[in-house]
UniProtKB/TrEMBL annotation:
InterPro entries: ComplexI_51kDa_subunit, NADH-UbQ_OxRdtase_51kDa_CS, NADH-UbQ_OxRdtase_suF, Nuo51_FMN-bd, Nuo51_FMN-bd_sf, Nuop51_4Fe4S-bd, Nuop51_4Fe4S-bd_sf, Soluble_ligand-bd. It comes from Boudabousia marimammalium. It catalyses: a quinone + NADH + 5 H(+)(in) = a quinol + NAD(+) + 4 H(+)(out). PANTHER family: NADH DEHYDROGENASE [UBIQUINONE] FLAVOPROTEIN 1, MITOCHONDRIAL, NADH-UBIQUINONE OXIDOREDUCTASE FLAVOPROTEIN 1 NDUFV1. Residues 334-379 form the NADH-ubiquinone oxidoreductase 51kDa subunit iron-sulphur binding domain. One of its GO terms (molecular function) is quinone binding. Its cofactor is [4Fe-4S] cluster; FMN. NDH-1 shuttles electrons from NADH, via FMN and iron-sulfur (Fe-S) centers, to quinones in the respiratory chain. Belongs to the complex I 51 kDa subunit family. One of its GO terms (biological process) is cellular respiration. It comes from the Bacteria. This is NADH-quinone oxidoreductase subunit F.
Protein backbone atom coordinates (compact mmCIF):
# COMPACT_ATOMS: atom_id res chain seq x y z
CA UNK A 1 0.00 0.00 0.00
CA UNK A 2 1.38 3.41 -0.96
CA UNK A 3 0.49 6.49 1.02
CA UNK A 4 1.77 10.05 0.83
CA UNK A 5 2.60 11.07 4.36
CA UNK A 6 3.34 14.84 4.53
CA UNK A 7 0.54 16.88 6.07
CA UNK A 8 -1.66 18.31 3.37
CA UNK A 9 -1.62 15.19 1.18
CA UNK A 10 -4.28 12.50 1.04
CA UNK A 11 -3.52 9.11 2.57
CA UNK A 12 -6.10 6.61 1.25
CA UNK A 13 -5.99 3.67 3.65
CA UNK A 14 -9.50 2.87 4.89
CA UNK A 15 -11.00 4.51 1.81
CA UNK A 16 -8.61 2.90 -0.66
CA UNK A 17 -11.13 0.30 -1.86
CA UNK A 18 -14.17 2.56 -2.05
CA UNK A 19 -13.84 3.03 -5.81
CA UNK A 20 -12.88 -0.57 -6.61
CA UNK A 21 -15.39 -2.86 -8.28
CA UNK A 22 -17.35 -4.63 -5.53
CA UNK A 23 -14.74 -3.37 -3.07
CA UNK A 24 -17.13 -4.31 -0.28
CA UNK A 25 -16.95 -8.05 -1.04
CA UNK A 26 -14.72 -10.59 0.68
CA UNK A 27 -13.23 -11.66 -2.65
CA UNK A 28 -12.18 -8.13 -3.54
CA UNK A 29 -10.90 -7.43 -0.02
CA UNK A 30 -8.73 -10.55 0.05
CA UNK A 31 -7.45 -9.87 -3.46
CA UNK A 32 -6.08 -6.59 -2.12
CA UNK A 33 -4.35 -8.14 0.89
CA UNK A 34 -7.30 -8.44 3.24
CA UNK A 35 -7.03 -10.58 6.39
CA UNK A 36 -3.22 -10.77 6.22
CA UNK A 37 -3.18 -8.63 9.36
CA UNK A 38 -5.40 -11.18 11.12
CA UNK A 39 -3.07 -13.99 10.01
CA UNK A 40 -0.21 -12.12 11.69
CA UNK A 41 -2.23 -11.45 14.82
CA UNK A 42 -3.12 -15.14 15.22
CA UNK A 43 0.62 -15.92 15.37
CA UNK A 44 1.32 -13.26 17.99
CA UNK A 45 0.86 -13.25 21.72
CA UNK A 46 -2.14 -11.22 22.81
CA UNK A 47 0.05 -8.81 24.76
CA UNK A 48 2.18 -8.24 21.65
CA UNK A 49 -0.85 -7.00 19.72
CA UNK A 50 -1.80 -4.59 22.51
CA UNK A 51 1.79 -3.32 22.74
CA UNK A 52 1.93 -2.81 18.96
CA UNK A 53 -1.23 -0.71 18.98
CA UNK A 54 0.10 1.27 21.95
CA UNK A 55 3.38 1.90 20.13
CA UNK A 56 1.54 3.14 17.03
CA UNK A 57 0.00 6.03 18.93
CA UNK A 58 -3.50 5.26 17.62
CA UNK A 59 -6.03 7.40 19.45
CA UNK A 60 -9.76 6.76 19.50
CA UNK A 61 -11.47 8.10 16.39
CA UNK A 62 -14.88 8.54 18.00
CA UNK A 63 -14.28 12.03 19.34
CA UNK A 64 -12.42 11.95 22.66
CA UNK A 65 -9.11 10.76 21.20
CA UNK A 66 -8.22 8.40 24.07
CA UNK A 67 -5.25 6.08 23.28
CA UNK A 68 -6.73 2.86 21.90
CA UNK A 69 -4.11 0.38 23.09
CA UNK A 70 -4.14 1.89 26.56
CA UNK A 71 -7.93 1.47 26.68
CA UNK A 72 -7.53 -2.24 25.87
CA UNK A 73 -4.95 -2.65 28.64
CA UNK A 74 -7.46 -1.45 31.25
CA UNK A 75 -9.22 -4.83 31.12
CA UNK A 76 -8.66 -6.78 34.35
CA UNK A 77 -6.65 -10.03 34.33
CA UNK A 78 -8.32 -12.77 32.33
CA UNK A 79 -10.45 -15.00 34.56
CA UNK A 80 -11.53 -17.34 31.75
CA UNK A 81 -15.07 -15.96 31.69
CA UNK A 82 -16.59 -13.95 28.82
CA UNK A 83 -15.30 -10.53 27.85
CA UNK A 84 -16.67 -8.46 25.02
CA UNK A 85 -15.81 -6.04 22.25
CA UNK A 86 -18.54 -3.58 21.27
CA UNK A 87 -18.08 -1.38 18.19
CA UNK A 88 -19.91 1.91 18.49
CA UNK A 89 -21.42 2.51 15.02
CA UNK A 90 -24.29 4.68 16.28
CA UNK A 91 -23.17 7.63 14.17
CA UNK A 92 -25.90 10.20 14.76
CA UNK A 93 -24.55 13.69 15.37
CA UNK A 94 -25.44 16.40 12.80
CA UNK A 95 -22.61 16.68 10.27
CA UNK A 96 -20.86 13.46 11.28
CA UNK A 97 -20.70 11.04 8.38
CA UNK A 98 -17.45 9.05 8.27
CA UNK A 99 -18.32 5.64 9.75
CA UNK A 100 -21.39 4.94 7.62
CA UNK A 101 -19.49 5.24 4.30
CA UNK A 102 -16.62 3.21 5.76
CA UNK A 103 -18.94 0.32 6.61
CA UNK A 104 -20.76 0.64 3.30
CA UNK A 105 -17.66 0.88 1.12
CA UNK A 106 -15.33 -1.46 3.01
CA UNK A 107 -17.09 -3.51 5.71
CA UNK A 108 -14.32 -6.11 5.82
CA UNK A 109 -11.70 -3.66 7.08
CA UNK A 110 -13.93 -3.20 10.14
CA UNK A 111 -14.53 -6.93 10.52
CA UNK A 112 -10.82 -7.70 10.24
CA UNK A 113 -10.14 -5.02 12.85
CA UNK A 114 -12.75 -6.64 15.08
CA UNK A 115 -11.12 -10.05 14.66
CA UNK A 116 -7.66 -8.65 15.49
CA UNK A 117 -8.94 -6.74 18.51
CA UNK A 118 -10.90 -9.77 19.72
CA UNK A 119 -7.73 -11.82 19.49
CA UNK A 120 -5.85 -9.18 21.51
CA UNK A 121 -8.37 -9.03 24.38
CA UNK A 122 -9.59 -12.67 24.20
CA UNK A 123 -13.09 -11.75 23.18
CA UNK A 124 -15.18 -14.57 21.70
CA UNK A 125 -18.34 -12.57 20.98
CA UNK A 126 -18.11 -9.11 19.43
CA UNK A 127 -20.97 -6.73 18.69
CA UNK A 128 -21.46 -3.94 16.17
CA UNK A 129 -24.09 -1.48 17.41
CA UNK A 130 -25.41 0.22 14.28
CA UNK A 131 -27.82 3.12 13.85
CA UNK A 132 -30.99 1.35 12.76
CA UNK A 133 -32.06 3.81 10.05
CA UNK A 134 -29.16 2.86 7.77
CA UNK A 135 -30.77 -0.38 6.63
CA UNK A 136 -28.53 -0.64 3.55
CA UNK A 137 -25.42 -0.63 5.77
CA UNK A 138 -27.02 -3.14 8.15
CA UNK A 139 -27.64 -5.55 5.26
CA UNK A 140 -24.12 -5.09 3.96
CA UNK A 141 -22.60 -5.87 7.36
CA UNK A 142 -24.82 -8.93 7.78
CA UNK A 143 -23.72 -10.17 4.38
CA UNK A 144 -20.04 -9.53 5.16
CA UNK A 145 -20.29 -11.46 8.45
CA UNK A 146 -21.95 -14.33 6.60
CA UNK A 147 -19.10 -14.31 4.05
CA UNK A 148 -16.59 -14.62 6.90
CA UNK A 149 -18.43 -17.51 8.50
CA UNK A 150 -18.77 -19.39 5.22
CA UNK A 151 -15.07 -18.84 4.45
CA UNK A 152 -14.09 -20.19 7.87
CA UNK A 153 -12.33 -16.98 8.89
CA UNK A 154 -14.42 -16.65 12.04
CA UNK A 155 -16.02 -19.45 13.97
CA UNK A 156 -14.88 -22.08 16.46
CA UNK A 157 -11.42 -23.54 16.94
CA UNK A 158 -9.61 -21.50 14.30
CA UNK A 159 -6.06 -20.18 14.04
CA UNK A 160 -2.70 -22.00 14.10
CA UNK A 161 -3.33 -23.27 17.62
CA UNK A 162 -7.06 -23.83 17.29
CA UNK A 163 -7.72 -21.32 20.07
CA UNK A 164 -9.39 -18.57 18.08
CA UNK A 165 -13.16 -18.51 18.59
CA UNK A 166 -15.21 -15.58 17.42
CA UNK A 167 -18.83 -14.74 16.77
CA UNK A 168 -19.82 -11.29 15.46
CA UNK A 169 -23.33 -9.94 16.02
CA UNK A 170 -24.59 -6.91 14.11
CA UNK A 171 -27.24 -5.15 16.19
CA UNK A 172 -29.46 -2.40 14.76
CA UNK A 173 -30.51 0.20 17.32
CA UNK A 174 -33.68 2.27 17.18
CA UNK A 175 -32.06 5.57 16.22
CA UNK A 176 -31.35 7.16 19.59
CA UNK A 177 -28.43 9.63 19.63
CA UNK A 178 -27.94 8.97 23.34
CA UNK A 179 -26.90 5.42 22.50
CA UNK A 180 -23.71 6.85 21.05
CA UNK A 181 -22.71 7.29 24.70
CA UNK A 182 -20.98 4.03 25.51
CA UNK A 183 -22.88 3.05 28.64
CA UNK A 184 -26.28 3.95 27.16
CA UNK A 185 -25.28 1.80 24.19
CA UNK A 186 -24.57 -1.12 26.54
CA UNK A 187 -27.96 -0.71 28.22
CA UNK A 188 -29.63 -0.76 24.81
CA UNK A 189 -27.70 -3.89 23.80
CA UNK A 190 -28.96 -5.58 26.94
CA UNK A 191 -32.55 -4.82 25.92
CA UNK A 192 -33.16 -1.87 28.19
CA UNK A 193 -33.91 1.75 27.41
CA UNK A 194 -30.72 3.58 26.42
CA UNK A 195 -29.77 5.58 29.50
CA UNK A 196 -26.19 6.44 30.50
CA UNK A 197 -24.84 4.58 33.51
CA UNK A 198 -23.06 6.02 36.49
CA UNK A 199 -19.29 5.59 36.23
CA UNK A 200 -17.35 3.97 37.85
CA UNK A 201 -17.48 1.10 37.26
CA UNK A 202 -16.22 1.70 33.74
CA UNK A 203 -17.02 -0.71 30.90
CA UNK A 204 -13.49 -2.13 31.03
CA UNK A 205 -14.38 -3.54 34.46
CA UNK A 206 -18.15 -4.06 34.24
CA UNK A 207 -19.61 -3.41 30.81
CA UNK A 208 -21.88 -5.60 28.71
CA UNK A 209 -23.64 -8.15 30.93
CA UNK A 210 -21.46 -6.81 33.79
CA UNK A 211 -18.36 -8.32 32.18
CA UNK A 212 -15.12 -6.58 31.06
CA UNK A 213 -15.87 -4.80 27.78
CA UNK A 214 -13.97 -2.69 25.28
CA UNK A 215 -16.10 -0.09 23.48
CA UNK A 216 -14.44 1.51 20.45
CA UNK A 217 -15.50 3.55 17.45
CA UNK A 218 -15.71 2.05 13.93
CA UNK A 219 -12.75 3.99 12.57
CA UNK A 220 -10.62 3.16 15.63
CA UNK A 221 -11.07 -0.58 15.14
CA UNK A 222 -10.71 -0.40 11.35
CA UNK A 223 -7.41 1.48 11.73
CA UNK A 224 -5.90 -1.45 13.63
CA UNK A 225 -5.65 -3.45 10.37
CA UNK A 226 -3.09 -1.13 8.78
CA UNK A 227 -0.99 -1.18 11.95
CA UNK A 228 -0.84 -5.00 11.88
CA UNK A 229 -0.05 -5.01 8.16
CA UNK A 230 2.57 -2.27 8.06
CA UNK A 231 3.76 -1.72 11.61
CA UNK A 232 3.69 0.99 14.25
CA UNK A 233 6.42 3.06 12.58
CA UNK A 234 4.45 3.21 9.32
CA UNK A 235 1.40 4.50 11.18
CA UNK A 236 3.41 6.91 13.32
CA UNK A 237 5.09 8.40 10.25
CA UNK A 238 1.77 10.05 9.41
CA UNK A 239 0.17 12.79 11.43
CA UNK A 240 1.71 14.83 14.24
CA UNK A 241 3.72 13.94 17.32
CA UNK A 242 0.70 13.49 19.58
CA UNK A 243 -1.96 12.78 16.94
CA UNK A 244 -0.45 10.06 14.82
CA UNK A 245 -1.83 8.35 11.75
CA UNK A 246 -4.50 8.99 9.17
CA UNK A 247 -8.16 9.91 9.55
CA UNK A 248 -11.31 10.61 7.58
CA UNK A 249 -12.21 14.30 7.35
CA UNK A 250 -15.84 14.88 6.32
CA UNK A 251 -16.19 18.25 4.57
CA UNK A 252 -19.78 19.40 3.99
CA UNK A 253 -21.72 22.59 3.45
CA UNK A 254 -20.83 25.60 1.32
CA UNK A 255 -17.93 24.09 -0.65
CA UNK A 256 -17.99 23.19 -4.32
CA UNK A 257 -17.27 19.47 -3.84
CA UNK A 258 -18.19 18.19 -0.38
CA UNK A 259 -16.95 14.73 0.48
CA UNK A 260 -14.64 12.48 2.49
CA UNK A 261 -10.92 13.23 2.54
CA UNK A 262 -8.63 10.69 4.20
CA UNK A 263 -5.51 12.54 5.26
CA UNK A 264 -2.86 12.61 8.01
CA UNK A 265 -3.67 14.47 11.19
CA UNK A 266 -2.17 17.93 11.04
CA UNK A 267 -3.72 18.88 7.72
CA UNK A 268 -5.34 22.32 7.83
CA UNK A 269 -8.89 23.38 7.10
CA UNK A 270 -7.59 25.69 4.36
CA UNK A 271 -6.03 22.70 2.59
CA UNK A 272 -9.20 20.64 2.93
CA UNK A 273 -11.37 23.43 1.58
CA UNK A 274 -9.02 23.75 -1.39
CA UNK A 275 -9.32 20.00 -1.99
CA UNK A 276 -13.09 20.42 -1.87
CA UNK A 277 -12.92 23.01 -4.65
CA UNK A 278 -13.05 26.03 -2.38
CA UNK A 279 -16.01 27.98 -1.02
CA UNK A 280 -18.85 28.16 -3.53
CA UNK A 281 -18.44 30.83 -6.19
CA UNK A 282 -18.94 34.44 -5.12
CA UNK A 283 -19.01 33.73 -1.39
CA UNK A 284 -16.65 33.69 1.58
CA UNK A 285 -16.26 31.61 4.72
CA UNK A 286 -18.18 32.75 7.80
CA UNK A 287 -17.73 29.92 10.29
CA UNK A 288 -17.05 26.17 10.46
CA UNK A 289 -17.13 23.28 12.88
CA UNK A 290 -14.00 21.17 13.46
CA UNK A 291 -15.72 18.14 14.96
CA UNK A 292 -19.44 18.28 14.44
CA UNK A 293 -22.28 20.30 15.92
CA UNK A 294 -21.23 19.57 19.51
CA UNK A 295 -17.86 21.34 19.18
CA UNK A 296 -17.23 25.09 19.55
CA UNK A 297 -17.28 26.79 16.15
CA UNK A 298 -14.27 28.33 14.42
CA UNK A 299 -13.96 31.23 11.97
CA UNK A 300 -11.47 32.11 9.23
CA UNK A 301 -8.88 32.87 11.92
CA UNK A 302 -8.35 29.15 12.49
CA UNK A 303 -8.08 28.09 8.83
CA UNK A 304 -4.34 27.41 9.09
CA UNK A 305 -4.46 25.61 12.43
CA UNK A 306 -3.26 21.97 12.26
CA UNK A 307 -6.24 19.64 12.62
CA UNK A 308 -5.05 17.46 15.46
CA UNK A 309 -6.41 16.80 18.93
CA UNK A 310 -4.06 19.10 20.83
CA UNK A 311 -4.10 22.08 18.45
CA UNK A 312 -7.92 22.07 18.40
CA UNK A 313 -8.06 21.90 22.17
CA UNK A 314 -5.59 24.73 22.59
CA UNK A 315 -7.63 26.85 20.17
CA UNK A 316 -10.74 26.33 22.31
CA UNK A 317 -12.58 23.55 20.49
CA UNK A 318 -12.39 19.80 19.85
CA UNK A 319 -11.46 17.77 16.79
CA UNK A 320 -14.27 15.38 17.66
CA UNK A 321 -15.40 13.27 14.72
CA UNK A 322 -13.81 15.58 12.10
CA UNK A 323 -17.23 16.62 10.81
CA UNK A 324 -16.11 19.80 9.10
CA UNK A 325 -19.25 21.77 8.31
CA UNK A 326 -18.59 24.89 6.26
CA UNK A 327 -20.91 27.92 6.30
CA UNK A 328 -20.56 31.05 4.17
CA UNK A 329 -21.72 34.63 4.82
CA UNK A 330 -25.29 33.92 3.69
CA UNK A 331 -25.86 31.68 6.71
CA UNK A 332 -27.72 32.70 9.85
CA UNK A 333 -25.78 31.50 12.89
CA UNK A 334 -28.98 31.72 14.92
CA UNK A 335 -30.86 29.50 12.46
CA UNK A 336 -28.11 26.86 12.33
CA UNK A 337 -27.74 26.67 16.10
CA UNK A 338 -31.52 26.56 16.52
CA UNK A 339 -31.65 23.43 14.34
CA UNK A 340 -28.86 21.84 16.37
CA UNK A 341 -30.61 22.79 19.63
CA UNK A 342 -33.86 21.20 18.45
CA UNK A 343 -31.91 18.03 17.74
CA UNK A 344 -30.30 17.87 21.18
CA UNK A 345 -33.56 18.61 22.93
CA UNK A 346 -35.31 15.86 20.97
CA UNK A 347 -32.51 13.37 21.68
CA UNK A 348 -32.19 14.05 25.41
CA UNK A 349 -32.96 10.81 27.22
CA UNK A 350 -34.56 12.73 30.11
CA UNK A 351 -32.57 10.96 32.82
CA UNK A 352 -31.10 14.10 34.39
CA UNK A 353 -32.78 17.43 35.12
CA UNK A 354 -30.14 19.84 33.72
CA UNK A 355 -30.29 18.29 30.25
CA UNK A 356 -34.00 17.41 30.19
CA UNK A 357 -35.20 20.84 31.32
CA UNK A 358 -32.30 22.92 30.05
CA UNK A 359 -32.44 21.75 26.43
CA UNK A 360 -36.19 22.41 26.39
CA UNK A 361 -35.70 26.04 27.44
CA UNK A 362 -32.73 26.53 25.13
CA UNK A 363 -34.97 25.48 22.27
CA UNK A 364 -37.80 27.84 23.29
CA UNK A 365 -35.49 30.85 23.50
CA UNK A 366 -33.66 30.00 20.27
CA UNK A 367 -36.94 29.60 18.36
CA UNK A 368 -38.19 33.04 19.38
CA UNK A 369 -34.85 34.64 18.52
CA UNK A 370 -34.96 32.97 15.12
CA UNK A 371 -38.47 34.32 14.61
CA UNK A 372 -37.38 37.85 15.57
CA UNK A 373 -39.56 37.73 18.69
CA UNK A 374 -36.82 37.65 21.30
CA UNK A 375 -37.28 39.30 24.67
CA UNK A 376 -34.92 41.66 26.44
CA UNK A 377 -32.22 39.65 28.19
CA UNK A 378 -32.72 36.50 26.07
CA UNK A 379 -29.09 36.28 24.98
CA UNK A 380 -27.83 36.38 28.57
CA UNK A 381 -30.59 33.95 29.52
CA UNK A 382 -29.25 31.50 26.90
CA UNK A 383 -25.78 31.74 28.43
CA UNK A 384 -27.19 31.22 31.92
CA UNK A 385 -29.12 28.11 30.88
CA UNK A 386 -26.16 26.73 28.93
CA UNK A 387 -23.84 27.22 31.93
CA UNK A 388 -26.32 25.36 34.12
CA UNK A 389 -26.26 22.40 31.72
CA UNK A 390 -22.56 22.16 30.84
CA UNK A 391 -20.65 20.08 33.37
CA UNK A 392 -23.81 19.38 35.37
CA UNK A 393 -25.57 16.79 33.21
CA UNK A 394 -25.26 13.04 33.66
CA UNK A 395 -23.40 12.55 30.37
CA UNK A 396 -21.81 14.59 27.59
CA UNK A 397 -25.07 15.18 25.68
CA UNK A 398 -25.78 18.16 27.90
CA UNK A 399 -22.39 19.65 27.11
CA UNK A 400 -23.02 19.00 23.41
CA UNK A 401 -26.22 21.06 23.58
CA UNK A 402 -24.67 23.93 25.54
CA UNK A 403 -21.45 24.24 23.54
CA UNK A 404 -22.78 25.66 20.23
CA UNK A 405 -24.94 28.18 22.13
CA UNK A 406 -21.98 29.54 24.09
CA UNK A 407 -19.65 29.45 21.12
CA UNK A 408 -22.15 31.08 18.76
CA UNK A 409 -22.79 33.97 21.15
CA UNK A 410 -19.05 34.43 21.70
CA UNK A 411 -18.41 34.91 17.99
CA UNK A 412 -21.71 36.37 16.72
CA UNK A 413 -23.51 37.99 19.64
CA UNK A 414 -24.84 40.78 17.40
CA UNK A 415 -26.81 38.25 15.35
CA UNK A 416 -28.42 36.87 18.48
CA UNK A 417 -29.25 40.40 19.62
CA UNK A 418 -30.80 41.10 16.21
CA UNK A 419 -33.26 38.32 16.98
CA UNK A 420 -34.97 40.65 19.44
CA UNK A 421 -36.47 42.59 16.54
CA UNK A 422 -35.79 40.93 13.17
CA UNK A 423 -36.50 37.38 11.96
CA UNK A 424 -33.50 35.40 10.73
CA UNK A 425 -35.30 34.78 7.43
CA UNK A 426 -35.18 38.51 6.69
CA UNK A 427 -31.54 38.95 7.64
CA UNK A 428 -30.48 35.75 5.91
CA UNK A 429 -33.04 34.54 3.32
CA UNK A 430 -33.26 30.78 2.96
CA UNK A 431 -32.72 31.02 -0.80
CA UNK A 432 -29.35 32.72 -0.38
CA UNK A 433 -27.82 29.94 1.70
CA UNK A 434 -29.46 27.00 -0.12
CA UNK A 435 -26.95 24.80 -1.91
CA UNK A 436 -29.50 23.67 -4.48
CA UNK A 437 -32.10 25.93 -6.07
CA UNK A 438 -35.66 24.75 -5.58
CA UNK A 439 -37.11 23.22 -8.75
CA UNK A 440 -40.36 24.78 -9.95
CA UNK A 441 -43.46 23.18 -11.31
CA UNK A 442 -42.68 24.79 -14.64
CA UNK A 443 -39.42 22.80 -14.74
CA UNK A 444 -41.37 19.57 -14.58
CA UNK A 445 -41.43 18.92 -10.83
CA UNK A 446 -44.83 18.53 -9.22
Amino acid sequence: MTVVTPAGKLTPVLSDSWDKEQGYSLESYRRNGGYQGLDKALRMERSEIVDLVKASGLRGRGGAGFPTGLKWSFLPPDDGKPRYLVVNADESEPGTCKDIPTMMGNPHVLLEGIAITSRAIRCEHAFIYLRGEVVHVYRRLLNAVRELEEAGIIGEGLGPNGDFNLKITVHAGAGAYICGEETALLDSLEGMRGHPRLKPPFPAVAGLYARPTVVNNVESIASVVGILNHGAEWFGAMGTEKSKGHGLFSVSGHVKHPGQFEAPFGITMRELIEMAGGIREGHQLKFWTPGGSSTPIFTAEQLDMPLDYDSCSQAGSMLGTRALQVFDETTSVVRVITRWTEFYQHESCGKCTPCREGTYWLKQVMLRLEAGQGQEGDVDLLLDIANNIAGRSFCALGDAAATPIKSGIEHFREEFEAGLTTPARELFPYEASAVFARATQKEGVR
